[in-house]
Specification:
heterodimer; A: 138 residues; mainly alpha; B: 62 residues
Chain lengths: 138, 62
Protein backbone atom coordinates (compact mmCIF):
# COMPACT_ATOMS: atom_id res chain seq x y z
CA UNK A 1 0.00 0.00 0.00
CA UNK A 2 2.70 2.44 1.10
CA UNK A 3 4.86 1.23 -1.76
CA UNK A 4 2.07 1.89 -4.26
CA UNK A 5 1.54 5.42 -2.90
CA UNK A 6 5.27 6.13 -3.14
CA UNK A 7 5.35 4.88 -6.73
CA UNK A 8 2.39 7.09 -7.66
CA UNK A 9 4.04 10.10 -6.04
CA UNK A 10 7.26 9.41 -7.97
CA UNK A 11 5.32 9.08 -11.22
CA UNK A 12 3.61 12.43 -10.55
CA UNK A 13 7.01 14.02 -9.97
CA UNK A 14 8.32 12.54 -13.21
CA UNK A 15 5.62 14.26 -15.29
CA UNK A 16 5.67 17.96 -14.40
CA UNK A 17 2.66 20.06 -15.34
CA UNK A 18 3.62 22.13 -18.35
CA UNK A 19 1.61 24.68 -20.29
CA UNK A 20 1.45 22.31 -23.25
CA UNK A 21 0.16 19.42 -21.13
CA UNK A 22 -2.86 21.56 -20.21
CA UNK A 23 -3.28 23.42 -23.51
CA UNK A 24 -3.04 20.44 -25.89
CA UNK A 25 -5.91 18.42 -24.35
CA UNK A 26 -8.09 21.53 -23.94
CA UNK A 27 -7.63 22.69 -27.54
CA UNK A 28 -7.80 19.09 -28.75
CA UNK A 29 -11.20 18.70 -27.14
CA UNK A 30 -12.53 21.96 -28.56
CA UNK A 31 -11.24 21.36 -32.10
CA UNK A 32 -10.57 17.68 -32.85
CA UNK A 33 -6.95 17.14 -33.92
CA UNK A 34 -5.82 20.61 -32.85
CA UNK A 35 -4.06 19.18 -29.78
CA UNK A 36 -1.75 17.33 -32.16
CA UNK A 37 -1.41 20.26 -34.54
CA UNK A 38 -0.15 22.68 -31.88
CA UNK A 39 2.54 20.12 -31.11
CA UNK A 40 3.54 20.09 -34.79
CA UNK A 41 2.04 16.65 -35.50
CA UNK A 42 0.36 18.10 -38.58
CA UNK A 43 -0.55 14.96 -40.51
CA UNK A 44 -1.94 13.19 -37.44
CA UNK A 45 -3.89 16.29 -36.45
CA UNK A 46 -5.42 16.75 -39.90
CA UNK A 47 -6.33 13.06 -40.17
CA UNK A 48 -7.94 13.13 -36.72
CA UNK A 49 -9.87 16.26 -37.61
CA UNK A 50 -11.11 14.83 -40.91
CA UNK A 51 -12.14 11.53 -39.31
CA UNK A 52 -13.94 12.96 -36.29
CA UNK A 53 -15.54 15.86 -38.18
CA UNK A 54 -16.72 13.55 -40.97
CA UNK A 55 -18.29 11.10 -38.54
CA UNK A 56 -20.06 13.87 -36.64
CA UNK A 57 -21.28 15.74 -39.73
CA UNK A 58 -22.39 12.54 -41.45
CA UNK A 59 -24.34 11.66 -38.32
CA UNK A 60 -25.98 15.07 -38.41
CA UNK A 61 -26.78 14.74 -42.11
CA UNK A 62 -28.31 11.32 -41.42
CA UNK A 63 -30.78 13.15 -39.13
CA UNK A 64 -29.19 11.80 -35.96
CA UNK A 65 -30.23 13.06 -32.56
CA UNK A 66 -28.06 15.14 -30.26
CA UNK A 67 -28.28 14.59 -26.49
CA UNK A 68 -28.64 17.45 -24.03
CA UNK A 69 -27.24 17.77 -20.52
CA UNK A 70 -30.56 17.41 -18.73
CA UNK A 71 -31.52 14.09 -20.27
CA UNK A 72 -32.84 12.58 -17.05
CA UNK A 73 -32.53 8.99 -18.29
CA UNK A 74 -29.16 7.29 -17.62
CA UNK A 75 -28.78 6.35 -21.30
CA UNK A 76 -29.41 9.97 -22.28
CA UNK A 77 -26.69 11.07 -19.86
CA UNK A 78 -24.27 8.57 -21.42
CA UNK A 79 -25.26 9.85 -24.85
CA UNK A 80 -24.56 13.39 -23.68
CA UNK A 81 -21.10 12.38 -22.40
CA UNK A 82 -20.33 10.88 -25.81
CA UNK A 83 -21.69 13.88 -27.71
CA UNK A 84 -19.89 16.49 -25.62
CA UNK A 85 -16.54 14.96 -26.63
CA UNK A 86 -16.98 16.41 -30.12
CA UNK A 87 -16.19 19.89 -28.77
CA UNK A 88 -17.03 22.76 -31.11
CA UNK A 89 -19.21 20.53 -33.30
CA UNK A 90 -21.45 19.74 -30.34
CA UNK A 91 -21.56 23.37 -29.22
CA UNK A 92 -22.52 24.67 -32.68
CA UNK A 93 -25.10 21.91 -33.21
CA UNK A 94 -26.71 22.68 -29.87
CA UNK A 95 -26.63 26.45 -30.48
CA UNK A 96 -28.24 26.08 -33.92
CA UNK A 97 -30.82 23.65 -32.58
CA UNK A 98 -29.79 21.04 -35.14
CA UNK A 99 -29.75 17.31 -34.45
CA UNK A 100 -33.34 16.90 -33.35
CA UNK A 101 -33.53 13.38 -34.79
CA UNK A 102 -36.07 12.25 -37.34
CA UNK A 103 -38.07 9.09 -36.73
CA UNK A 104 -39.14 9.11 -40.40
CA UNK A 105 -35.59 8.18 -41.48
CA UNK A 106 -34.50 4.62 -40.76
CA UNK A 107 -30.86 5.70 -40.79
CA UNK A 108 -31.37 8.42 -38.17
CA UNK A 109 -30.41 5.98 -35.43
CA UNK A 110 -27.11 5.28 -37.22
CA UNK A 111 -26.58 9.03 -37.31
CA UNK A 112 -27.12 9.30 -33.56
CA UNK A 113 -24.50 6.60 -32.97
CA UNK A 114 -22.08 8.25 -35.43
CA UNK A 115 -22.21 11.49 -33.43
CA UNK A 116 -21.67 9.73 -30.10
CA UNK A 117 -18.73 7.74 -31.47
CA UNK A 118 -17.21 10.90 -32.97
CA UNK A 119 -17.17 12.41 -29.47
CA UNK A 120 -15.74 9.27 -27.89
CA UNK A 121 -13.01 9.05 -30.53
CA UNK A 122 -12.13 12.65 -29.78
CA UNK A 123 -11.65 11.73 -26.10
CA UNK A 124 -9.08 9.15 -27.23
CA UNK A 125 -7.40 11.78 -29.43
CA UNK A 126 -7.32 14.19 -26.45
CA UNK A 127 -5.62 11.54 -24.28
CA UNK A 128 -3.11 10.93 -27.07
CA UNK A 129 -2.36 14.67 -27.34
CA UNK A 130 -1.75 14.73 -23.58
CA UNK A 131 0.62 11.77 -23.79
CA UNK A 132 2.59 13.54 -26.50
CA UNK A 133 2.67 16.73 -24.40
CA UNK A 134 4.13 14.95 -21.35
CA UNK A 135 6.64 13.05 -23.50
CA UNK A 136 5.10 9.62 -22.95
CA UNK A 137 4.62 9.28 -26.70
CA UNK A 138 6.59 10.70 -29.62
CA UNK B 1 -30.42 21.18 -41.41
CA UNK B 2 -31.70 20.63 -44.93
CA UNK B 3 -29.06 18.16 -46.08
CA UNK B 4 -30.12 14.57 -45.63
CA UNK B 5 -27.88 11.62 -46.36
CA UNK B 6 -29.24 8.11 -46.41
CA UNK B 7 -26.68 5.34 -46.11
CA UNK B 8 -27.54 1.67 -46.18
CA UNK B 9 -26.29 -0.58 -43.40
CA UNK B 10 -23.15 -1.72 -45.20
CA UNK B 11 -22.04 1.73 -46.36
CA UNK B 12 -22.66 3.10 -42.86
CA UNK B 13 -20.49 0.31 -41.45
CA UNK B 14 -17.84 1.01 -44.10
CA UNK B 15 -17.67 4.73 -43.30
CA UNK B 16 -17.66 4.05 -39.56
CA UNK B 17 -14.88 1.46 -39.90
CA UNK B 18 -12.74 3.76 -42.03
CA UNK B 19 -12.82 6.75 -39.69
CA UNK B 20 -12.64 4.77 -36.44
CA UNK B 21 -9.66 2.79 -37.80
CA UNK B 22 -7.79 5.99 -38.69
CA UNK B 23 -8.24 7.33 -35.14
CA UNK B 24 -7.33 3.98 -33.55
CA UNK B 25 -4.23 3.67 -35.74
CA UNK B 26 -2.97 7.16 -34.87
CA UNK B 27 -3.69 6.98 -31.15
CA UNK B 28 -2.71 3.41 -30.31
CA UNK B 29 0.70 3.11 -31.96
CA UNK B 30 4.02 4.99 -31.88
CA UNK B 31 5.63 4.82 -35.31
CA UNK B 32 4.10 5.68 -38.67
CA UNK B 33 4.53 2.15 -39.98
CA UNK B 34 2.83 0.64 -36.92
CA UNK B 35 0.01 3.19 -37.15
CA UNK B 36 -0.74 2.21 -40.75
CA UNK B 37 -0.56 -1.49 -39.96
CA UNK B 38 -2.78 -1.21 -36.90
CA UNK B 39 -5.26 1.00 -38.76
CA UNK B 40 -5.53 -1.55 -41.56
CA UNK B 41 -5.90 -4.35 -38.99
CA UNK B 42 -8.74 -2.50 -37.22
CA UNK B 43 -10.45 -1.77 -40.55
CA UNK B 44 -10.27 -5.44 -41.54
CA UNK B 45 -11.57 -6.54 -38.14
CA UNK B 46 -14.47 -4.07 -38.26
CA UNK B 47 -15.52 -5.14 -41.74
CA UNK B 48 -14.85 -8.81 -41.04
CA UNK B 49 -17.00 -8.55 -37.92
CA UNK B 50 -19.83 -6.97 -39.91
CA UNK B 51 -19.69 -9.71 -42.55
CA UNK B 52 -19.49 -12.55 -39.99
CA UNK B 53 -22.34 -11.08 -37.93
CA UNK B 54 -24.39 -10.57 -41.09
CA UNK B 55 -23.95 -14.16 -42.24
CA UNK B 56 -24.59 -15.45 -38.69
CA UNK B 57 -27.90 -13.57 -38.57
CA UNK B 58 -28.78 -14.85 -42.04
CA UNK B 59 -28.16 -18.43 -40.86
CA UNK B 60 -30.15 -17.91 -37.65
CA UNK B 61 -33.10 -16.58 -39.62
CA UNK B 62 -33.32 -19.72 -41.76
Amino acid sequence: MANSTTQKAKAAEATPLTLMSVLAPAIGWLIPGAGHMIQKRWIRGVLLFISIASLFLLGLAMQGRIYKANGGDILDILGFVGNVGAGVFYIVTLAQDWGQGAIAFATADYGTKFMIVAGLLNFIAVADAYHIAIGKKK
Amino acid sequence: MQLTITLNHFSAALVFSLFASIVFGITHRETMRDMVRYGLYCFAMFLGGVLVAGWAMWLLRR
